[in-house]
Amino acid sequence: MTDTVFIKALDCQAVIGVFDWEKQIRQQLLLDLTIGWNNRPAAATDDYQHALCYDTVAKQVTALVQDQPHELVETVAEKVAALILTEFNAPWVRVTVNKPGAVANASTVGVEIERSRA
Ligand SMILES: Nc1nc2c(c(=O)[nH]1)N=C([C@H](O)[C@@H](O)CO)CN2
Predict the structure, then answer these.
(1) Claim: this prediction has a pTM higher than 0.90
(2) How many domains does one find in the chain?
(3) Are strands 110-116 and 92-98 parallel, antiparallel or unpaired?
(4) ipTM of the assembly?
């Protein structure tokens, strides 16, 4: 089953970084999420109850990323993956965390992980 629900370039303003100056400011993180989800039941019934609501996912992920400080983008990616697997019961998720302001001569840097439910 290769169906997914995705969210691209989710804009989060986060306290993120390893240096002291980074703990005093907010910086942009852009998250790309690809979530394994069987879309057939929602399509067959045209019923929102069977859909994985990308708006609900986006709001919960934004709150998680913005409401507490983190040092590493790796930590953010793991926490977001765990949220999606546990709270939304998704079978797998791919999370990309972009920190576009981090390296002056790169358009973006970051990490990408894939996690599955145990
Ligand atoms: N693999 C990582 N490398 C770096 C990170 C990170 O979160 N993961 N963070 C930093 C600093 O916070 C940097 O972004 C400041 O510009 C350096 N390397």
Answers:
(1) yes
(2) 1
(3) antiparallel
(4) 0.97
